[in-house]
Specification:
The complex is a heterodimer of chains A (106) and B (128). Chain A is an all-alpha fold. Chain A has helices at 2-11, 25-38, 61-75, 81-86, 90-100. Classes of the chains: A mainly alpha (106), B mainly alpha (128). Chains A and B meet through helix 3 of A and helix 1 of B. Chain A: InterPro entries: ACP, ACP-like_sf, PP-bd_ACP.
Chain lengths: 106, 128
Amino acid sequence: ISQHAIQRCSQWRCYASASSAGLSQDKITERVMTVIKLFEKISAEKLTIESHFMKELGLDSLDHVELLMAIEDEFGFEIPDQDAEKLNKPSDIIKYLCEKMEVDYK
Amino acid sequence: LMSSAGGTLIRQAVKEAKPVFSATSEDARRRVLNLYRAWFRQLPYIIREYDVPLTLPMCRRKLRENFEKYRQVNDIRVIDLLVAKGQMELVETAHMWKQKTHVMDYFKQTVTPKPTDFLGKFFDGKEP
């Protein structure tokens, strides 16, 4: 009977939690910074986690939209407008993604 | 506005335009950015479905150019109307109600620019 139970257990679907999917704040940070570096309108030298997109990196609002779309494509979910307006630095984006994907943010 | 001059009240009718879609400029800004997002996401499919001789960077630049053309506009109703027209263009393009030639029209490859200086206009036959 116990063997039968074990077989049934293996067929149950496991909903992956963030940690089992291999997501941690460091991995999110790495992916976000890679996406931002690939964006050709940003020079890699000036880019830090705290650099402001519009004030320090010289992006305008349409560039900001393009950047957020690249991040949406990378992580696979849509970022609504009210939240998108507030994401002005890479650190904001990382914090937002950690909250959305239920990863602990330090 | 009421101003008293010599004891008499002059009432000025304050006219306010009825909004087209958005009530605030913040609202209008969101519409513009959403239109940009929708066009941006549709571009690769446009290139594939219409089989136009364009690359994705060319199309993105043209999209950006068309949005930059109206950067100076501040009137909310005008912005709403421009967004509505952009949305109509997007719907027509996405549903394939247009043809390849209509998509290539955005790039104006066969349009000769109108002359601006005197000699150009003279050769064109325009009377000053």
